């Protein structure tokens, strides 16, 4: 299926919606958003249904699921659209979607189970469990990169990931130890800086296997999924039953069903099952759920933090924020053809799950409507979020302040090379890596606009890190840097992200340090 021709996604229903929306927009009295807000219905979730259909129409989303629990009961669950447009398979409440990074709270729950059994210590160094493949610290001390900090994304490991598509033979899929030997670098002192990392979460595979003798998927399936009664949640090994799965729709078509990754495992679930998982984590347990973690362990997963990284909203298992006037516990999962959210409001005993096969489609309008419908005392007419979503404000580094030439080195477990970065008066960079054999010019300009994230600056370049090329073919270098006194430090990552989900895709970070050239 070509996603560009997916007008058939919603069939007749979509045509009717479009006509209604045109009528609403053409009215001088009612806006599109007012249409959903003014629905007069005894069904408290009628507005949610309207918002979902609006979003699916606007973003050309094929499949969508929502579920809500309140006071220990699932009070709403609904599915929309097509799990597989081409084969005309409708989405049901039993259709499983790839959860993406919502797998991380499952992993952190597994680690808490092992910690409560005394099989691991949350403050143990990660390297204790990694055998001959060790994390290398270019800042700080690797012994301070603990399991707790790995859960918090503050070990110093920068952003990175590895995904193997179904075309990659099993024997050629890189192991966690292979990735450590390529990209196991700590680019900031442990505990000092938040850096979201999928490769870091992949290391838990080695930890779980080392203490239990089984892989993370087997442990999570037996110790979490089964006891919590999540009958539509599973890891797939080999062929995936296409009739039970929502396709991942992207601009280039449909991604293959079966691919796996480090920290981003092939866990499939439904909105209803994710709500069951969330209910356990706010202690609103269903009668058929067995206790897998103590109440104090549940609390620790969303309360533990370190003062050194005061800006981060991350806790051991979740992100904790103040959204729409409530303290919330949440985790998202996104990627090409995936947009999911698990969202909990402990004070209201509310859990909300959204799942769709959108390409990074925003679901904030649906989320807001769900909150207004789900909180037990809410009067929708009075539901006015005080400040919207409560994401933290990160310090901003001005790239224009970097004008001039900087020289230094990129280095990692496999080698080192000299590098120069020149910034013009506006802060636009050009990159030169000694020995780069894939850059079309000696100096390569950034291929995309700067991204400002977590107090750092990020650019992409069509370039290569020469000492990594024999081990990992790549066609981009991602530069992510911040100021450290008179120097620029951070990561320079070898990236292979074209044809995502087919073959190998990865971002493999290395350490970079630059100083001004005089």
Question: What would your notes on this structure say?
Answer:
The chain has 518 residues and is α+β, with helices and mostly antiparallel strands. The protein is built from 12 helices and 25 strands. It has helices at 11-26, 32-37, 46-59, 103-116, 147-152, 176-183, 198-202, 204-212, 216-225, 271-281, 295-303, 364-374, and strands spanning 63-70, 73-84, 89-90, 97-98, 136-137, 161-164, 185-186, 234-235, 249-250, 253-254, 260-261, 267-269, 319-323, 326-335, 338-345, 350-356, 404-412, 415-423, 429-433, 444-445, 451-453, 456-461, 476-484, 487-496, 504-516. A hairpin with a 4-residue loop joins strand 15 and strand 16. Helix 3 packs antiparallel against helix 12 (364-374) and helix 4 (103-116) crosses helix 9 (216-225). The termini are far apart.
Write the layout of secondary structure elements.
Blueprint: H1 11-26, H2 32-37, H3 46-59, E1 63-70, E2 73-84, E3 89-90, E4 97-98, H4 103-116, E5 136-137, H5 147-152, E6 161-164, H6 176-183, E7 185-186, H7 198-202, H8 204-212, H9 216-225, E8 234-235, E9 249-250, E10 253-254, E11 260-261, E12 267-269, H10 271-281, H11 295-303, E13 319-323, E14 326-335, E15 338-345, E16 350-356, H12 364-374, E17 404-412, E18 415-423, E19 429-433, E20 444-445, E21 451-453, E22 456-461, E23 476-484, E24 487-496, E25 504-516
Parallel strand pairs: 5-7
Antiparallel strand pairs: 1-2, 1-16, 2-3, 4-12, 6-11, 6-25, 8-12, 9-10, 13-14, 14-15, 15-16, 17-18, 17-25, 18-19, 19-20, 21-22, 22-23, 23-24, 24-25
Helix pairs in contact: 3-12, 4-9
